[in-house]
């Protein structure tokens, strides 16, 4: 399994994007605006958590604060952790690793994520049997090559609430199961050792202490569990939907014909709501998924400026470039894809 040769498309893209950045004096990473954004997101997280644990005394106070905390968790994942994991946050590797490890404090594992996302997903996007992001077992059918089961005809209805369990599944099961089994998507998966193992264990302990230990000193167990589930549901639903809108839509390539690496990145990804500045800020530029897959080591704050140039280059080389105009249209496209894959082969 491998990609075909580049026909000049990837070379042209890189040259034009590099010229775009250099002509404007823009560094690819290490932007002050990114550091400011990080501060805003972590202040949002800390304020939501502090008020929720130490100030909220009634449901009408706890519910909006839990929703705010869930959105803050997702926001840090979209922007800080994601850029750090790809090395696009800072020109300093140590800073990138530190930002990537923010995921460990949020209940995930930066070790597992880096290999699951950066290696498997980014190398082979939407390729069945390799890209773990489209493998849900028998729960859903996200690729035409996967077997269709009777219950899949309803997946366009039941998957939306199930997306809310993504964070719980990651935090309480998936990372541990992957490490214990030493496999992912049927392939060998290296277990963490040394400092990586310490980070994995330490991160989980800190997360469980913040999510359950400290709150249980101040609130009843049923309250702590209910609030945790609400926070996790908001974060899980937000993270799941944003990632699905970029790859699990009718226009995204899912077939085994790989072509060239750059063409596959474009044709297996779909942009959405490119003109929405607030959405792009919050989701860390992941609404510009094509640009992200082509240039994962460029800070996401550059993607909006790069998008017209990337689209023009795709048109010149005959590479299909797709962008849904709004968030609503992208959600509708994902709904149609779930329904189509569930009803027909």
In words, what does this structure look like?
- The model has no long low-confidence stretch (mean pLDDT 94).
- The chain is built from 15 helices and four strands.
- The strands form two sheets. It has a two-stranded antiparallel ribbon with strand order 1-2. A two-stranded parallel sheet has the order 3-4.
- Helices cover 63% and strands 2% of the residues.
- The protein has one domain (9-343).
- It is mainly alpha-helical and 345 residues long.
- The relative contact order is 0.15.
- A hairpin with a 2-residue loop joins strand 1 and strand 2.
- The protein starts with 8 loop residues before the first helix and ends with a helix.
Total strand segments? 4
What is the count of helical runs? 15
In terms of per-residue confidence, which ranges show pLDDT below 50 for 5 or more consecutive residues? none
Distance between the termini: 24 Å
SSE order: HHHHHHHHEEHHHEHHHEH
| Rg computed from alpha carbons, rounded to a whole number of angstroms | 20 Å
Count of separate structural domains: 1
What's the SSE blueprint?
Blueprint lengths: L8 H15 L8 H23 L4 H28 L6 H8 L1 H4 L4 H14 L31 H9 L2 H16 L1 E2 L2 E2 L6 H24 L2 H27 L13 H7 L3 E2 L4 H6 L6 H6 L8 H15 L5 E2 L2 H17 L2
Helix pairs in contact: 1-14, 2-3, 3-4, 3-10, 7-10, 9-10, 10-15
């Amino acid at each position: 399994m491998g990609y075909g040769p580049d026909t000049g498309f990837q070379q042209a893209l890189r040259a034009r994007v590099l010229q775009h950045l250099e002509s404007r004096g823009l560094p690819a990473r290490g932007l002050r605006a990114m550091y400011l954004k990080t501060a805003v997101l972590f202040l949002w997280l800390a304020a939501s958590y502090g008020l929720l644990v130490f100030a909220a005394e009634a449901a009408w106070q706890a519910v909006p604060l839990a929703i705010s905390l869930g959105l803050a968790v997702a926001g840090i994942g979209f922007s800080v952790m994601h850029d750090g994991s790809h090395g696009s946050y800072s020109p300093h590797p140590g800073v990138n690793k530190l930002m990537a490890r923010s995921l460990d404090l949020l209940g995930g594992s930066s070790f597992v994520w880096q290999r699951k996302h950066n290696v498997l997903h980014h190398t082979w996007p939407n390729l069945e049997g390799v890209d773990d992001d489209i493998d849900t077992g028998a729960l859903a059918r996200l690729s035409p090559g996967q077997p269709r089961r009777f219950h899949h005809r309803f997946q366009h209805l039941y998957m939306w609430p199930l997306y809310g369990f993504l964070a719980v599944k990651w935090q309480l099961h998936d990372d541990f199961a992957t490490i214990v089994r030493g496999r992912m998507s049927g392939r060998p998966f290296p277990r963490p050792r040394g400092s990586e193992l310490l980070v994995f264990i330490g991160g989980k302990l800190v997360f469980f202490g913040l999510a359950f230990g400290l709150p249980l000193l101040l609130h009843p167990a049923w309250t702590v569990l209910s609030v945790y589930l609400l926070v996790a549901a908001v974060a899980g639903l937000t993270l799941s939907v944003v990632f699905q809108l970029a790859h699990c839509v009718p226009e995204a390539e899912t077939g085994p014909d790989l072509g060239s690496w750059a063409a596959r990145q474009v044709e297996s990804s779909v942009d959405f709501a490119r003109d929405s500045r607030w959405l792009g800020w919050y989701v860390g530029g992941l609404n510009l998924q094509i640009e992200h897959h082509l240039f994962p080591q460029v800070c996401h704050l550059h993607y909006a400026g790069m998008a017209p140039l990337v689209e023009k280059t795709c048109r010149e080389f005959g590479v299909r470039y797709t962008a849904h105009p709004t968030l609503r249209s992208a959600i509708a496209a994902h709904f149609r894809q779930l329904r189509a894959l569930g009803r027909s082969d």
